[in-house]
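Aim 2 progress. For VirK protein, the working sequence is reproduced below.
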Amino acid sequence: MIKAAVIVATLVASPVFAGSWNGSTTDGIRLASVTTKSADEIAVMCDVGINAPISAITFAINGTAPMPNSSVMMQFDKDAPIYATTDIEGGIGTFAHPDVEQFNRIVGLMKSKSRVKVRLFNGATATFALAGSSAAIGDKCAVHGDTMQMASQ
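Predicted structure tokens for this construct:
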């Protein structure tokens, strides 16, 4: 009985059971997301063909999204945490060249690591499995400075 309880507790706490990544492309926009059993979510939206500055990463933890211009902590696997500042909409967007570099770095980590722990400005924390994120995000989700500039003119 105790062994069964330990197995169940391990399965429930495992990020593997935190949700499956899914992705789809509609009208030149690639949307990839994962949602946990407790409705925490990461969504990655990428311009893959319409040349508009709408690529962004958004989060929701315990029903809360990041505040505009707040900090989001992400720790991929056992690496040192990285901190990203959200844009005026509360996401990690691509409106300026430093934003593009940050966005591309985070998307690359999401596609190459096993899990990410996310902490918002209010201390809300969730861990997301990244298995399947590479396929869900796809190969065309990289913003280039020239595309970003062209879209903002």
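The chain has one domain: 2-152. This observation will guide construct design in the next reporting period.
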